């Protein structure tokens, strides 16, 4: 190549690269702009919106605007309660300009977050006899309002029937927003409000319609079923004839059937945008909800970048209890999300309800599986069928992707499909389209023995990893392998439960290791709850079956269980703080299953990073004896103690504080959290924490401490007895953690140990107020 030609090509490539970079810089994206609270300049403007607009006008000053585009058209939301600020479409250069303005606290790009019963109320003991009936004590949550941020709601579901519901609380300030296929009459005394937030999603240029999903409604109406399911789990009305095509039959009701529901649709087919979520929290605060339930999130991020953490801090200041899903990225360590100390972070556990779908091999061996296939049209599965496992090539046939299975290989046969890549029910459709007549869904090593069931489109069952290894070995070593499926309906009480769900996200918290997360676990596997009446039970567009209920699994399902229980406690104790309510649930949580054995995490006892304080027990939580209370100002001091800067704390809490002044006024400050996390680093061999407990039980109560020390740690508690003379009295105690000599050597990485500190009521040994202890030993 001639040097001159090469030079021209290089110049051209440089020009293209420069032009591309310039175009990228000029491309508008959504940003959330947080402003200083209580700004004096805001008073110079006729409205909050005009003040917010002034910042945008300053950012675009001198920049040639697109024809007919006004700066005001770029503002997506003007926030007021959850955060001081606004979200807008900006170029990178405009975002940089705003960052440098003195009244701007932070400029954050919009993030996309993802979504993460006929029996569970019985499993939790909510309908117990006599004095143990939590619904009777709490009036089923009457008077409380649960705000659910999710995919919307199907208002015609019988779970939102308002027969017998009390009047709408006078404090309610919300609305029933009209939209596509949704009118003001869609709400009632159960579903008292509904709104939708789509601006952040829409400006991201994300198409609303997906070829693999049902049509989306531009309203609060639910298109995917997730929001209907979670809202009914939290507070659904009783439905006496609930089942999933005959399986799991019984009376369906939410945790707080007397509570009111307000729905805020923030999630669409392409995810949940943080600008929309923040707008919903902003409005929910103004609407005066009592509980916020968020079954959404992602991977852990720092608190000062976490829109949910920032918005919910303001909600907590307004006395709103916030409950969040911990995420479905387990069993990966440090995968737990939504870890702000002012929210209840919930992991997932199992129920003792099973739906057997056994694989009987031709050699007589039985492989246990589970399925909610309705059991009709089983002639193709009741007889033995040839079993095939299609592998090789690059089409993903082992995962049964649509279009990957050769008809000549699977016609009329039972097909093994590995989990992963595509949806579990979608695999059955792929088998059906290619001529297969039944499916065995096989867990891979990452799924282990997880048993999330589905209402399959063809006769099918899910088997665990150990069973899948046996099955594949049988297919590999047999000339013409055959099997049949045997469906066993619904079986209750014959299996250990609760156990930790394999997918439930684990601690320690990556973003906030000084607080033990998750806080607790709740039922989240194979939960049956309400479903839109225009969807099949799989939610797939080609599923023509119609149901009122279906089954789902995830921390998305465990979150509304705790949200509903939170409403029950709030109804019983309307003056309690969100922290006191969370304390009641954590300090009474169960460490043992229904058989009296330690809750399991796979093949081992569950540790604190899997279950936090334990499995929620509403029967005990309604009468906790003692609570650990926290005021919002305490969270500010806590952020100071863990090294957050003044600007970080301002971004998170909207408080412009001096940590030096705060900590000098509170030497040795410890956040009064119901769990205790201690981190040894920098050569330290002793740590001390302080806790305060408030008596919410009998006036004259005496509690004695009982400690199960973490391995390698000496624990000293002073005082060892707490003597209360009246209700609402608060007493303090201190705990010293001392490394034993054998534990003081050089450490590689970090090691962990856990224990328990329990205050036992001397007059009622059944009343125990337990705090889990987590100890981390880092390099020192």
Automatic annotation (TrEMBL):
<feature type="domain" description="Inhibitor I9">
    <location>
        <begin position="30"/>
        <end position="116"/>
    </location>
</feature>
<dbReference type="InterPro" id="IPR000209">
    <property type="entry name" value="Peptidase_S8/S53_dom"/>
</dbReference>
<feature type="region of interest" description="Disordered">
    <location>
        <begin position="207"/>
        <end position="238"/>
    </location>
</feature>
<dbReference type="GO" id="GO:0048731">
    <property type="term" value="P:system development"/>
</dbReference>
<protein>
    <submittedName>
        <fullName>Subtilisin-like protease SBT1.2</fullName>
    </submittedName>
</protein>
<keyword id="KW-0732">Signal</keyword>
<feature type="active site" description="Charge relay system">
    <location>
        <position position="150"/>
    </location>
</feature>
<dbReference type="InterPro" id="IPR015500">
    <property type="entry name" value="Peptidase_S8_subtilisin-rel"/>
</dbReference>
<dbReference type="InterPro" id="IPR003137">
    <property type="entry name" value="PA_domain"/>
</dbReference>
<dbReference type="Pfam" id="PF02225">
    <property type="entry name" value="PA"/>
</dbReference>
<feature type="domain" description="Subtilisin-like protease fibronectin type-III">
    <location>
        <begin position="671"/>
        <end position="775"/>
    </location>
</feature>
<dbReference type="InterPro" id="IPR037045">
    <property type="entry name" value="S8pro/Inhibitor_I9_sf"/>
</dbReference>
<comment type="similarity">
    <text>Belongs to the peptidase S8 family.</text>
</comment>
<dbReference type="InterPro" id="IPR010259">
    <property type="entry name" value="S8pro/Inhibitor_I9"/>
</dbReference>
<keyword id="KW-0378">Hydrolase</keyword>
<keyword id="KW-0645">Protease</keyword>
<feature type="compositionally biased region" description="Low complexity">
    <location>
        <begin position="225"/>
        <end position="237"/>
    </location>
</feature>
<keyword id="KW-0325">Glycoprotein</keyword>
<dbReference type="InterPro" id="IPR041469">
    <property type="entry name" value="Subtilisin-like_FN3"/>
</dbReference>
<dbReference type="Pfam" id="PF00082">
    <property type="entry name" value="Peptidase_S8"/>
</dbReference>
<dbReference type="GO" id="GO:0005576">
    <property type="term" value="C:extracellular region"/>
</dbReference>
<feature type="active site" description="Charge relay system">
    <location>
        <position position="226"/>
    </location>
</feature>
<feature type="signal peptide">
    <location>
        <begin position="1"/>
        <end position="21"/>
    </location>
</feature>
<dbReference type="Pfam" id="PF05922">
    <property type="entry name" value="Inhibitor_I9"/>
</dbReference>
<dbReference type="Pfam" id="PF17766">
    <property type="entry name" value="fn3_6"/>
</dbReference>
<dbReference type="InterPro" id="IPR036852">
    <property type="entry name" value="Peptidase_S8/S53_dom_sf"/>
</dbReference>
<keyword id="KW-0720">Serine protease</keyword>
<dbReference type="InterPro" id="IPR023828">
    <property type="entry name" value="Peptidase_S8_Ser-AS"/>
</dbReference>
<feature type="active site" description="Charge relay system">
    <location>
        <position position="556"/>
    </location>
</feature>
<feature type="domain" description="Peptidase S8/S53">
    <location>
        <begin position="141"/>
        <end position="600"/>
    </location>
</feature>
<dbReference type="GO" id="GO:0004252">
    <property type="term" value="F:serine-type endopeptidase activity"/>
</dbReference>
<feature type="domain" description="PA">
    <location>
        <begin position="386"/>
        <end position="467"/>
    </location>
</feature>
<dbReference type="InterPro" id="IPR045051">
    <property type="entry name" value="SBT"/>
</dbReference>
<dbReference type="InterPro" id="IPR034197">
    <property type="entry name" value="Peptidases_S8_3"/>
</dbReference>
<dbReference type="GO" id="GO:0006508">
    <property type="term" value="P:proteolysis"/>
</dbReference>
<keyword id="KW-0964">Secreted</keyword>
